[in-house]
C-alpha cells in the first residue's frame, strides 16, 4: 500500500513542480518582454496573460490537415511532456528526498534529451504539411549538433561525483559548486537547454520564419498542449541544470526545496531574458558553432575537471 | 522489488518489442517504420534494465533515438518521397523474406530453448568492470586505439568531403577549379 502511496505522491510532486515551474516561466517571460521592450510593467496584466492565452487557445477550434498521421500528432506533445516528467522525477529536492534515484540518472536524463528530437520530429512530420516538416528537419540538424556538447558538459559534472546518479552529483558539490569548478559547463548547458526547449534564440524548429514551424498547423487544444509540453521541458532542463551546476538543494539558512526553487527560477529568468534580448540564431551558424566551438570547449571542460581529480 | 511487477513489466515490454517489430514491416511509410523500430529497440532496452543491465539498457535507448532519426531522414532523402508519408510497400521479395524470417526466428528460439541459461552469479560486480577496463586499456589498448583513430579519421574525411567549403571556394557560390595551363580559361 505504501508503495502505491509513494508512487502517487511522486507523480503528484513531479506534475506539480512542472505546472508551477511553467507558470513561473510564463510570468518571467511576460516580465522580460516588457523590460526588454522598455514598456511599463503592468502586474495585473502580467498575472492574467498566461491564463488569457490558455483560455483563448482552448476556445479555438482544433483544425486538422489532409491525411495526417493521427497517432503521431497525438503522441508528440504527450511524449515531450512525458520526457519532461521523466527528467523532473530525478531532481533531488533535499538530502534523501528525491522522487526517483536511478544509479544511471545521468544516462536517463541524456536519453530523455535525445528523445526530444523524436518528439519534435514526430510533431513536425505528422501533420503532412510543408512548413512543419521544414521545422522537423531543422530540429534534426540542431539536435544532432547539440547532443555531443550536452553529453560532455553533463559528463564533466559526473566526474567529481564519480557516479552517474544525480543525487551523488549534487552531494559532490558540497565543497564547491560545479558552476565554479567547471565554469564552461553551465554556459554550454544553457545554450543546449535553449535548443532543447525550442526557446528564444534557438527556437529554430518552431520559428516565426516558418510561420510557427512544427506547430504551424496546430490550433486550439493541440497548440496549447504543445506549448505546455515545450514549457515543461524547459522547466525540467532548468531544474536539472540547477542540480548539476548550481548545487541543487545545497545552500545556507533556507531549506533545500527553497534553494532548488530559487536556483531553478534564476535559470528560468536567464532563459526568459535570452528569448527577448537575443536575436534568433541562423541554423547554419548554430550548427557550425556547436561542432567547431562547443565540442572542443566541452572537451576542454572534461579534461580540466578530470585533472582536478588527479 | 517483488517478482510480480517485474514479470508484468517484462511481459508488457516484450509485447511492445514484438508488436512494434512486426509493425515495422506492415506499415506503409518509411518514417513510421523507423519509429516502430525505435519503439521496439526502446522496449528491448527497458528489458535490459529489468535484467539488471541498467547502464547498457539506458545507453541503448539513448543511442537509438539519434540513429533512428538519421535513418528516417536518410531513407526519405534517398527514396525521393519528400515527407515519407506517401504510401509504399516496406518489403521486397516477399516469399524469400518470409522464409528467411521464419527460419531465423525458429533457429534463435531453438537456441534459446535448448541452449539453457548459464547460472554463474557474479560474486564481486566491481571486479568485472575493473577487468574490462584493464582489458580495454591494457593488452588490447593498441587494437582499440587503432580502431578508434581510424574511425575518427573516417568521420573527419567524410565531413571534409561533404562540407560545402572547398579549396576553390564555397560549393554554393560558384566555386570553380582553376585551369590546368596558365592563362587558360577555367572549365565551366
Summed up, what is this model?
Chain A is built from eleven helices and no strands.
Overview of the structural elements:
The complex is a heterodimer of chains A (310) and B (188). Chain A is an all-alpha fold. Chain A contains eleven helices and no strands. Chain A has helices at residues 2-37, 43-59, 70-88, 105-125, 130-161, 166-171, 178-181, 185-196, 220-245, 256-277, 283-309. Chain A is globular, with a radius of gyration of 19 Å. The relative contact order of chain A is 0.16. Chain B has 188 residues and is mostly helical. Helices cover 68% and strands 2% of the residues of chain B. Chain B has helices at 3-26, 30-50, 54-79, 94-115, 125-137, 141-162, and strands at 165-166, 169-170. In chain B, strands 1-2 form a two-stranded antiparallel sheet. In chain B, a hairpin with a 2-residue loop joins strand 1 and strand 2. The mean pLDDT of chain B is 84. The A-B interface holds A 67, 69, 72, 102-104, 107-108, 110-111, 114-115, 117-118, 121-122, 125, 128, 133, 137, 140, 143-144, 147, 164 and B 29, 31-32, 35, 38, 54-55, 58-59, 61-63, 65-66, 68-70, 72-73, 82-85.
Principal-axes geometry of chain B comes out as extended
What's the structural domain tally of chain B?
Answer: 2
Q: What is the terminal-to-terminal distance of chain B?
A: 72 Å
| Rg over alpha carbons of chain B | 25 Å
Domain count of chain A, please report it: 1
DSSP strand (E) fraction of chain B? under 5%
**Helix/strand structural class of chain A:** mainly alpha
Separation, N- and C-terminal Cα atoms of chain A? 47 Å
Uncertain residue ranges of chain B: none
> What do the pLDDT scores of chain A average to?
88
Number of DSSP helical runs of chain A: 11
Percentage of residues in DSSP E strands of chain A: under 5%
How much helix is in the residues of chain B?
55-70%
Could you give the count of β-strands of chain B?
2
The largest sheet of chain A, given as strand count, sense and whether it forms a barrel, is:
none
Uncertain runs of chain A = none
The helix/strand order of chain A is HHHHHHHHHHH
Oligomeric form of this entry? heterodimer
The largest inter-chain interface, given as chain pair and residues per side, is: A-B, 25 and 23 residues
Helix content of chain A: over 70%
